[in-house]
Amino acid sequence: MVGWRTGCLILACLVSGCGGSGGDSVLYDEPAGDDPDKGQTVDDEFVARADIRGTDQLYAYRPDSPYANVLRDCALVDRSEEACSLEVLPFITQATPDFSREDILDRLLVTHDWMGVRFEQLLAEAPEYMVTLFGSLTSIAIGSTVRPSNYWGGTGGIQLDPENLWLSVEEKATVSLEEDYRSDYGKDLNYWAFGTLRRGSQPASYYYSLTSTDERTLNDIRIPVYRLFYHELAHAVDYLPSASVPTLDARLTPAAALAANEQYWLSPRLYLDLPLYSEELQALAQVSYKGQEATAAQRNYSPAQVGFLMAGDGAAKYYGYSTHREDFATLFATIMIKRDFDVDYYMAFVQKPEDEEDYVCSELAVGWGVRNRIADPLVIPRAKWVVESIYGFSSEIDAFFANSLGQQSQMTEGLDWCSNRDGQSTIAGKLASDASRAALDARARIQLEGERLDNEH
Predict the structure, then answer these.
(1) How far apart are CA 229 and CA 298, in angstroms?
(2) What are phi and psi of 264, to 5 degrees?
(3) In whole angstroms, what is the distance from residue 171 CA to residue 173 CA?
(4) What is the model's pLDDT at position 456?
(5) Average of per-residue pLDDT across 393-412
(6) Are the C-beta atoms of residues 33 and 163 closer than 8 Å to each other?
(7) pLDDT digit string (tens) for 40-81?
(8) pLDDT value at position 254?
(9) CA distance 419 to 346
(10) What is the arrangement of strands in the sheet containing 366-371, beginning at the earlier edge strand?
(11) In angstroms, rounded to a whole number, what is the distance separating the alpha carbons of residues 183 and 192?
């Protein structure tokens, strides 16, 4: 690859999936657009769903693609052994080593044309060192009911949730309202994890409701979508780094070919060289992100105790403890968004409010939190390892890590999340800390809910 130059989970993610903003299984939801009463209704408060299409209605965005006749069938299998061989649908870089953006678009499936248009717009603006990563994919699918976004080694493809891509009311009406299947995980734990991207005292991006009449611009979605791209592409490159490509056996399915080249996988090597050490956090992440039942001891962990564990280890995000693969991907996505946009990742563990459905930010006391997590001395060498494993060693990478990360700073324990996030002197901080629920307007509430990591966004 070019750009910035170029005992573990042997088949777990290959046959189940790696979520990025998503989880560990590919979702194949039934179509939800057959009810004639489900038309689009727009008023001041609500946009109803219209023309929701299941993944069985995906089609090639480019009908003249050389893979148009096989793309859908190859990308939508239920079991990895049913996948097409790489002779039928090869990885992009396997078919065309010097591939272009046009070759990537030839692998795109959508349920609505606007999804392809939006992907094409963002791909056109993407830096070359991001574009090169798409070579480790066989397909990209964007559909109404995809949730969460995910990579699956069974097909060597990614699926993207269009919640990240819509701009207009008409577009958002075609995006499913189905909740992420992980939304109830970790309900018995005594803390919430919060995280957000910030540029100084301002959000680097905003969360938007799928049911309101709010619209947004391409600039509003650029940072979250590129973060999503980096995350899912990190999964793909983890399994298929550039050194692995020449030795792929095209007679095999993607899962079998990737497994045969296991010695090239990146995240297992990260764990040999720079492992995460906290067994407690790894076990807690299985509760938060895999749905395991919490033990009595885990239910008693305070936000401060969980934060103490995080402070002594090198993950970029709490989600990184869910699997080795997610650790690798979260490190990469966090550092690349810092590089591209100079935004900082803030994270904290907070006390859960008494009423989890009706609360204000003043109830979310921080037990432990930091600003600019990627600049933590324990995180930096692991993030650098990941970047260099993908792009190779370079003076540019060295200079970026030496000069451009900034400093990590601690949040104030006992102060609420919003005040720690914004600074107590800001208007937003004062509003969010007001005891009256009326002080939290609709926009602030959506932002707060989006920053709450009940599942990884």
Answers:
(1) 33
(2) -95, -10
(3) 5
(4) 64
(5) 97
(6) no
(7) 333 446 899 999 999 999 999 999 999 999 999 999 999 999
(8) 98
(9) 12
(10) 202-203, 191-199, 344-351, 366-371, 409-410
(11) 12
Backbone φ and ψ of 91, nearest 5°: -60, 150
In what helix (H) or strand (E) does residue 350 lie, and over which residues does it extend?
strand 344-351
Q: Please state the rounded mean pLDDT for residues 4-20.
A: 47
Report the 10 Å Cβ neighbour count for 244. Answer: 21
Residues 6+ apart with CB under 8 A from 271: 8, 324
For the segment 181-196, what is each residue's pLDDT rounded down to a tens digit? 898 899 999 999 999 9
Q: Strand, helix or coil at 111?
A: coil
Q: Are 409 and 371 in contact (CB under 8 A)?
A: yes
**Pairing mode of beta strands 108-110, 139-142:** parallel
Cα–Cα distance between 284 and 261 in angstroms, integer?
Answer: 31
**Do residues 454 and 350 lie in contact, with contact meaning Cβ atoms separated by under 8 Å?**
no
| Tokens describing residue 118 | 């939006």
Q: Give residue 341's identity as a one-letter amino acid code.
A: F
In the chain, count H helices and then E strands.
Answer: 19, 11
253-277 pLDDT per residue, tens? 999 999 999 999 999 999 999 999 9
* Cβ contacts of 354 within 8 Å, gap of 6 or more: 363
For tokens 């207009």, name the residue: 168
- Residue from 325, 252, 349, 427 nearest 11 by CA: 325
Cis peptide preceding 148, ω within 30 of 0: yes
Q: CA angle, corner 227, sides to 226 and 231, nearest 5? A: 115
C-alpha span between 247 and 267 (Å, rounded)? 19
Q: Determine which helix (DSSP H) or strand (DSSP E) holds 192, and give its type and residue range.
A: strand 191-199
Q: What would you report as the CA-atom Rg of the chain, rounded to the nearest whole angstrom?
A: 21
- CA dist 6 and 326 (Å) reads 22
